């Protein structure tokens, strides 16, 4: 399976990431950075107390009280990058969608969670997960090792049991998941945040086929991807550093499933419901990121969606994605 972190960094990106932990992808780190930046806001959509610790550990420089976060690759906490301002709004804006989905799925009685490409996700600690919940975090050994080292300094607690599955998704992750204790006879809450855009359509189909093969009835799934491949003219660029990052991001975007979520998931036996990031941001009271400006012709759109492995009539009408977007 395609691994976005395996691509060589452009010079402008390498210049600001040369001291990052070996093997820990920039996408995982900038997602943590966005969550740290959001958590500092007075009107924060969520608070992730551990996100800043990942940033500080990666960069090796702590921010003083009231100071901006240290720069990390394209991420800048000083407002100087139009690209980062837009990316940060997107990464922070999608987080509550997944938070609501996970909390609701567990409230409905499910107790088995799998995060594919878990990265530096801390939902097992910051969300009120029910006792008896098992959370399988699947990512590369380097990412999970770095995460464990940082968490060990803070010793956060969780009502859930965390099981780390250290494997690249290009390898036999299903076998590794089973070996770690995953029970394919129990309904599963699948969380695949920020991954699908880095896959080609055949790779996305292979991933979904693997998920479907080990999902019991009652399993649910949440993910997102773009309506089309991103282009350089989608991206606001402030300087040469932004340009290097934009080139990396657009070249890494493989297009994902290539069709709308409802059609894609239906092929695999799931009933999907989606909403546009623009709707999500409006509900959160936040402006639309420039990346997703709807006034442009052929605007870039991010489809957030959930799906259920069940009959159409059994779909929970109170699920987090009650607004369905049927526009192309």
UniProtKB/TrEMBL annotation:
Any single Pfam family the record assigns to this protein: LCM
EC numbers: 2.1.1.-
GO biological process: methylation
Keywords, sorted A to Z: Methyltransferase, S-adenosyl-L-methionine, Transferase
Coiled coil: none
Keyword Protease tagged: no
Highest rank taxon of the organism: Bacteria
SUPFAM superfamilies given in the database record: S-adenosyl-L-methionine-dependent methyltransferases
Protein family per UniProt: Belongs to the UPF0677 family.
Protein name: S-adenosyl-L-methionine-dependent methyltransferase
Organism: Planotetraspora thailandica
